[in-house]
Amino acid sequence: MPWNDNANPGPWGSPPDGDGERKPGGAGRGPGGPRRPGGPDIPPGLDQAMNRLRGLFGGRGDGVPPGAIAVFAAAAFGLWAISGVYIVQPNEEGVVLTFGKATRQAKPGLNYHLPAPIEHVEKVAVTDLQRVDVGGSNAEDKPEESLMLTGDENIVDLDFSVVWRVADAQAFIFTVREPDVAVKAVAESAMREVVGKMPLQAILTSGRGKVQIQAAELMQKTLDRWGAGVTVVEVQIRSANPPTEVVDAFRQVANAGQDAESKVNEANTYKNRVVNEAKGDAAKLTQSAEAYREQAVREALGETARFNQIYGEYKRAPGVTRQRLYIETMQQVLSKSNKVVVDGKGTSAPIILPPDVFRPRTPTARSTVQDDGGTQSGDQATTGAPK
Fold it and tell me: Residue 145 and residue 157: Cα distance in Å, rounded?
């Protein structure tokens, strides 16, 4: 039955006439026109408004005119066409799917695709850094994820985090269904493989950086082999400890190792200091010996030259040279003694000297030297002349 067939009144009776009366065969009458079962009365002005609307589009009240259908169809098509406009944010990358197949990528900004169901767009945040924690967090610990077997058959409780981002939006959409779960599974597997090749002591002390680098590289290789379109930015070890039951014992071992290393460093420091001092002393002695040798050689050369000069003078005047050598020798010998040299030639009476002559000499005092004579000290005087 057509929806605009007014001949058949339907289950609610015939539509009212212009005066609000029902046509024969209606299910009931009322002062306001037709009445739906269990519902309110329909105002009589509603039918009049519908009739005016039909007249506006050229109808005669017996159906929807073709012009109205065209207008509604044009409006619906316009809304459908406009629905293809979309915006990609600066941190996103869009992938346009045509009947479910990726056909192109959309850059940030205002873009357009054919309306659904022909095309639709998937937006992926490609610059945002994502973080996955393995082994629990500060509020919750997960031993089933953090306990791992090391290369020397010990157990380590290791918590770490993985920072990653999307590198290929198209591969990320079609390959990874739950990215956090996939990255976490790959991270745990890679870390267990790396830890299983290293001793516990290295993981607890100086080998953390190596573990992080190797785990990140292994994760990246696995994700690339899957074609996940994910880049591993960094692997961070938050904590690495032995199991709770043996923490105290491992701390004692670690402290003992640190003490041993400290003692070794102190011994090396002492060794370096002693060796350097010995080398310095040896160099000092060597330089002193070389300087003494140079001094002795030069003094010997000087004495030789002086002797040769004196010998030359002696050959020319032997008496004068002997007298001068005698006086110089006596001056050198008696320069620091309380001696007085006087001339003993032609003396007939004792020589009386003042008492202060024999007092202790000061460093600046000098002995009296005459051309020819003897010496007298205290209560004893020596006279004579060189032969």
Answer: 9
The structure's pTM equals 0.47
Per the structure block, which two tokens stand in for 60?
């005669």
> What is the pLDDT, as a whole number, of residue 276?
93
3-state secondary structure of 235: strand
Cβ burial of 65 (10 Å; 0-12, 13-18, 19+) is middle
Rounded CA-CA distance 109/105 in Å is 12
Q: Look up residue 52 and give its DSSP letter.
A: H
Q: Say how far apart CA 209 and CA 47 lie, in whole Å.
A: 82
Residue by residue, DSSP assigns 293-322 as HHHHHHHHHHHHHHHHHHHHHHHH-HHHHH
Q: Which segments of the chain belong to CATH 3.30.479.30?
A: 138-242
Calculate ∠ Cα 118-124-128, nearest 5°.
Answer: 170
Phi, psi torsion values for 125, nearest 5 degrees: -80, 105
Paired strand residues for 161? 133, 236
- How do strand 130-134 and strand 374-377 relate by DSSP bridges? unpaired
C-alpha torsion 44→50→55→56, nearest 10: 130
- Mean pLDDT (the chain) is 76
Cα separations (Å) of 333 from 304, 327, 366, 367, 376?
Answer: 22, 10, 12, 10, 14
pLDDT at 351: 66
Select from 3.40.50.720, 3.30.479.30, 3.30.930.10, 3.20.20.70 the CATH code of 138-242: 3.30.479.30
State pLDDT tens for residues 238-269: 988 887 777 788 778 778 888 999 999 999 99
In contact, 47 and 16? CB cutoff 8 Å:
yes
